[in-house]
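Why do we care about 3D structure at all? Because function follows from shape, and shape follows, mostly, from sequence. That is the central idea of this module. The next example makes it concrete: a single protein chain, its amino acid sequence, and then its structure expressed as tokens.
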Amino acid sequence: MIFGVGGVGSNLVQVCKAFTGESARIIAVDKSLDRLLYAKETMGATDFVHIEDGMTESEIIKRIHSKTPNNSGADVAFEVIGNKFTARQAVLSLAPGGKAVLAGLTKPEIQMELPITHIVRRKIEIVGSFGAKASVDTPEVLKMLERRELSLESVSERFSLEEVSAAYNKLYEGNITGKAIVVM
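And the structure:
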């Protein structure tokens, strides 16, 4: 399961698919229906959960669990937004023995509250992930592109150098589906 399917998350969808194969269930979670449809129709998500305004945390978790086998939760949840609420939801949406991978960055003073007993009893693992090691990962990504296990479909918008301000505005507003690049 992937919380946040913008630029980073949409790429993570196809990486998960490449590593787990066609039979794996990859659930995209986001508040943008456009990004969710893009993740499913273009990037390989098998299902999605649309977080709508006004939903409570328990409604979100219940909807997520309904997409998993036996309503038990996800085996792995990635949070790539850097939001304390979605990071908490990622942890709470896990099946027993599940792993939450927190990769989204936020301000250093932001903290997340978690129910300790829930984590202990369900044997949940929480790990952080900060980027890639370019010297190791770039050659592997290029090989995966050659084998067509990954695509560049996540590049959904291109901007000229003169349009950089407009690109940042769209990014800040959350109005970019996939990734945007500046073409020089």
